[in-house]
Amino acid sequence: MIRARLVNYLPTIAVAVTVLLAWELLVLLFDIQQFLLPKPSAIFAEFAYQVGLWLAPDERSILFESSGATFWEAVGGFVIGCGSGVLVALITSRWTIISEATMPFAIAANSVPIIAFAPIMNNWFGITNPASKMAIVAIIVFFPTMINTVRGLTLVDARQLELMRSYAASPGEVLRKLRIPNALPYIFSALRVASALSLIGAVVAEFFGGPRATLGVYITQEASAFDFAKAWTAIMMASIIGIGFYLTVLMLERRLMPWHVSFRVE
Amino acid sequence: MNAIEAQGIHKVFNPGTDEEVIALQDIDLQVVAGEFLSLVGPSGCGKSTLMRLIADLLQPSGGELRVNGKAPAQARRDRDYGMVFQQATLYDWRSVSKNVQLPLEVMGYAKAERVKRAQAMLELVELGDFLEHYPWQLSGGMQQRVSIARALVFEPSVLLMDEPFGALDEFTRERMNMELLRIWQATGTTVVFVTHSIAEAAFLSQRIVVMTPRPGRITQVVANPLPYPRDFQTRADPAFHALVTQLRDLLRDAVGASDNPRKA
After folding, report:
1. Which positions ≥6 away from B189 have C-beta within 8 Å?
2. How much is the pTM?
3. Residue B122 pLDDT more than 60?
4. Which residues of A touch B93 (CB under 8 A)?
5. Has residue A120 been placed in a domain?
6. What average pLDDT does the segment B218-242 reach?
7. Do B89 and A159 touch (CB under 8 A)?
């Protein structure tokens, strides 16, 4: 079983190792300056050093503190944005007129680069207040979640609706027994996108300023100090958190909809 | 008593526009309670439309329609009929047993009663060993049997079937036909069965309503002389062949009359 799994992942691991080796060799071969591109080995060394600081009882790792702060901004914004997105979708889809009136605006708002509001949110909530980053994240994830949820609630097979009608089911029953389960795959595909977007939103919002111990600020400061190994380590941390976040949502999805096409095991 | 009574039914789609279509014209029909009746005809003859009028999924443009002596909307609210479509339309997220329980949930049955009835119904359609399976784990024929169980689980007096076996292969279809007759005889439900297969209508029903398109109307109602129970031998019976030939001739004459290329 475990062996078969390893064989499955072997190509992926081989690609990762090859890319890292090629990267290391290229930097050595062409003598690339560390401020342009540090060696992977230097990044891993810095990462190991930070882990050491983090584990030591009387030391502090600014990197890990930053990662924690950014993580909570992303999660907070994700929960607020996705939660209200689903809620607003449920309310608007109940009255077709409202959802038809609001959908064009939601779709238009979804194409606006919301990150451009980051400086304004900094003014509204205060530059060091995590709420300013959460607000940006929440707005970024709100629209895709709302749009997908409305689609899932309304794009229901006509036969399924007729079946419910033939049972003389009330609108509330149709919502609970048909529309919401039908919307789950749509909601989760939005949540997966939102999980990635929320971390991007948080880090980029921090580029516009924030407390010292956040990943966006950490990256800009280390980069302007030409300490690129540190900046790259922070980028790696952001990637690890982002992937972890995505996988958590994916796990939740498998748990909640084991019946869905993408998880079927013949 | 008549389960269904239709008198002078008209149905016009998009009336008053360029796309106006007369789907049904002057439909008079009585379906006796407990009867197995088929509506047969080519595409566009209005057979599905007629069924949807009975189910109150569409409203007639004119005429009088009664289901169990009531207006179709009232019959629907009283859960007088169960429906089976060409596609099984099961809910992916529900197990087989939960799918069959769906109408019972909507109708407010207690859980113990739902589970008991679903199991009994699934045993009737010979799926007693598949209660906890999910629809995608079943073949097309099995899925359709689940949908029949779901339509019958609340014991409606009328079963409306809209080309239920049209998407199945020939062998499965013949087996499902015999299965359906067995279920019909076990439950005593009135069955209205829409099909475009002449052989299927001849094999199953007591009476066959022959319908023709443009505009959709009833050409003739043919009584089936074949006795029940019907089985593999029925299809070899000369009376079966005579009936199929008669139905085919009726359809050819009628379709030829309304669809003559020389007139076009």
Report:
1. B34, B152, B156, B157, B158, B159
2. 0.84
3. yes
4. 181, 184, 257, 259-260
5. yes
6. 92
7. yes
Would you tell me which CATH number, out of the four given (3.40.50.170, 3.40.50.300, 3.40.1440.60, 3.30.70.3420), belongs to the domain B2-77+192-258? Answer: 3.40.50.300
Facing A165 at nearest CB: one of B57, B107, B134: B57
Per-residue pLDDT tens over the stretch B33-63: 999 999 999 888 999 999 999 999 999 999 9
With a CB cutoff of 8 Å and minimum separation 6, the contacts of B47 are B39, B40, B41, B194, B196, B211, B216
Find the CB nearest B89 among A157, A184, A261. A157
Task: Quote the number of domains for chain A.
Answer: 2
Burial class of residue B44, CB neighbours in 10 A (0-12, 13-18, 19+): middle
First to last CA, chain A: 17
CA–CA separation, A140 and A82 (whole Å): 9
Q: Do B106 and A261 touch (CB under 8 A)?
A: no
Q: Which residue range(s) make up the domain with A169? A: 46-263
pLDDT for B169:
87
The reply to whether A9 and A92 lie within a common domain is no
* Residues 6+ positions from B205 with CB-CB distance below 8 Å: B36, B37, B38, B193, B224
